[in-house]
Amino acid sequence: MPPRRTHTKSRAGCAKCKKRRIKCDEVHPSCGNCVKHAIECDFSSAARVLPAGMVSVSPSSSSELPVSSPMMLDASPPPGNGQHQVITPHQHGFFPQSTVNTVSPVINMTDMELLHHWTLSVPSSLTGKDDVEFIWRDVIPRLAFRESQGCLVHAILAISALHLAFIEPNERPQKMCIAADHYGEAVRGVKDSVSVPATINKDNCEGLFVSSTLIVVYAIANPMLTEKISPPTEIPPWTMPAWLPLIRGVHSILKAVWTWIETGCLAPLLGGHTYIGDSAGEDEAMNALFRICTDKREQDADEIKDSAVSQAYFGAIHELQKNFANEIALRRKMVSLIFIWPISISDAFFALLQERRPRALIIFAHYCVLLKKLEGFWWVEGRADYELGRIERTLPEPWRKWLEWPVKMIRGG
């Protein structure tokens, strides 16, 4: 009889092999027998408890997060006394230091699709300047990955989903629901960040600026897409669009740190805003606006006897005139034109607009011509006519003659 082969007895095998009384090859993180039988090996479970100094990655019970949470950001260490050290990227100098200690590996595949779509398609739809498209495509996502609040990530995903809703009508309701979830999270994050102005600093002001800008883009585009799904039976009266106070509110908070924003990585986005040239063909329309604020024969002449009110109107018209001059002189579609006038008008004029004073509405209707000029951008498409129709619905008949120029410029004819 041939001699019996000797073998080394497995003393550190996995529990599954011991239970089945078979030799374990002790290969980590899963032994050969467990791999062969497609069962979970005890070694793989044990591997999740790592010695100090190693990266800790915890599996999730679910492969998805809610749509509104593309990643979970945890700025606090895990509880308990047996805390282990987490190696973060900045310790090796790969990325700038962040306030985030760990990032869960849980990935929502819908959000991955949205981020992919952003990279491929969205940046070119946000700027009329080819030389700054890379800012939206490369620089701004990097800002998003650095921030601790997560508001910029959500703002990016909201706009990406909204853009898909615009170009894919068959999936519009679903994509708009996804966009709304991310928009809500972005707004919440920005509110939390700006609620304590002292916490706005050089490190987070750029992310807050871009988040706020994208929130405004969403607020401009969303109503038109909503009406494509469910058209109104009749045009309602004009009300203050949500994006106007958004623009003004964010600017009032960030103006204290504006020097950091305009000299940082976003500087190329903000260039070319010096007003030059004349308003050319718009001069006549602007002069007509000045007339309704001085002609005592017009309706409600007592209003313009108040010097504070008349100055508010004059200031708003002057700022609008400068916007038209800039657009004509530079001969390019500048997205910033949408934002500059709402920032430049006085609080007094803004109050008059909120009160839906006829003169204020007529001036705003002229501003909508700028929106029409920028309709090459998907998120502005239809907004000028949207506002004009509601202003027509609201203005008393004697005032509507002053809408002749905006109607011609926005609707043609």
From TrEMBL:
UniProtKB keywords: Nucleus
GO molecular function, one term: DNA-binding transcription activator activity, RNA polymerase II-specific
InterPro entries: Sterol_Uptake_Regulator, Zn2-C6_fun-type_DNA-bd_sf, Zn2Cys6_DnaBD
Stored Pfam families: Zn_clus (PF00172)
Nucleus in keyword set: yes
Residue ranges constituting the Zn(2)-C6 fungal-type domain according to the UniProt record: 13-43
The name this protein goes by in its record: Zn(2)-C6 fungal-type domain-containing protein
Xref: PANTHER family: STEROL UPTAKE CONTROL PROTEIN 2
Coiled coil regions in record: none
Provenance organism: Tuber borchii (White truffle)
